[in-house]
Amino acid sequence: MRAAGRLLHSVLEDVRTMIKPGVTTLELDARAEKLIRDGGGIPSSKGYEGFPSSICASVDSEVVHGFPNDVPLKEGQIVSVDCTCILNGWQSDSAFTAPVGTCSKDVLRLIKVTEECFWKGVSQAKAGNRIGDIGWAVQKHAEDHGYGVIRDFCGHGIGREMHEDPSVPNYGKPGRGVRLQPGMTITIEPMIAMGTWKIFIKDNDWTAVTRDNKPCSHYEHTLLITEGEPEILSLPGAAVGR
Ligand code: MF3
Ligand code: CO
Ligand code: CO
Fold first, then answer.
1. What is the pLDDT of residue 237?
2. Residue whose CA is closest, atom 4 of ligand 1?
3. Residue 222: inside a domain, yes or no?
4. pLDDT-derived band of residue 240, with 50, 70 and 90 as boundaries?
5. How far apart are CA 64 and CA 56, in angstroms?
6. The pLDDT of residue 215 is above 80
7. Residue from 62, 64, 223 to probe ligand 1 pocket by mutation (most atoms less than 8 Å from CB)
8. Domain total for the chain?
9. 155-187 pLDDT per residue, tens
10. Which of 163, 209, 220, 235 is the most exposed, having the fewest neighbouring CB atoms within 10 Å of its CB?
């Protein structure tokens, strides 16, 4: 899973550099798929329950599971890129949200606070703590900024499968839920909205969009639980706990 995380991180860092006005999300998808396959991996989203692409590309008020398309990205938009790959039978899952060119201060703050929410969750992700400790830490930071925490999608266990137990919600109560143990591998993936957390699903039966059409940001990594600080497998070089 460390190797899968290293590959995925290198792929996403490459795709990140492509994000600018005029590029299409299909171009980002093609690049991600090529880099994963060149690295010996398989893009695990492609064909997953019928999902068409190697990345989910979700623009502005799209929350998750956006289909890459041929519409050029425009200055001032934000785009979330979420990608899962398998290497040697092991999965890694990571997402980030980036501005397209110059964006409003409001939306840049949303992206920053979403990443901070992730790190608040990480601070609780250690053996002996519970899933609810992670959710509470994420939720509190988001709501302290007046943002909405998406309820319909959660982090998750991950390993040979993309989605395993336990579910890792971005909300919860301290001291509740499954106890974390060394060796568990999970994702933490806050999806934080500028307005309401309520969503609807588009006609494609996949893409979630905020009901008030306000922007939403997503940030995700795959983590290994240890006795101490977790190891962030899809962020090599973070060296947390190593
Ligand atoms: N990467 C997503 C997650 O964070 C799931 C992708 S769904 C798929 O759980 F259909 F695109 F594969
Ligand atoms: Co993901
Ligand atoms: Co995930």
1. 79
2. 93
3. yes
4. low
5. 7
6. yes
7. 64
8. 1
9. 999 999 999 999 999 999 999 999 999 999 999
10. 163
Q: How many whole angstroms separate alpha carbon 136 and alpha carbon 166?
A: 16
What is the CA(51)–ligand 2 centre distance, in A? 13
Is 18 a domain residue?
A: yes
Check residue 142 and give its pLDDT. Answer: 98
Query: Ligand 1 pocket, 45 CB below 6 A?
Result: yes
At position 14, the amino acid (one-letter code) is D
In contact, 79 and 25? CB cutoff 8 Å: yes
The CB density around residue 237, as the number of other CB atoms within 10 Å, is 9
Range of the domain at 221: 2-232
Q: Is residue 241 part of a domain?
A: no
CA of 48 to the centre of ligand 1 (A): 8
Domain CATH number, residue 72: 3.90.230.10
Best residue among 51, 161, 163, 204 to mutate for probing ligand 1, ranked by most atoms within 8 Å of CB? 51
Examine residue 159 and state whether it is found in any structural domain, yes or no. Answer: yes
pTM of the model: 0.97
What would the pLDDT profile of 107-142 be if each residue is shown by its tens digit? 999 999 999 999 999 999 999 999 999 999 999 999
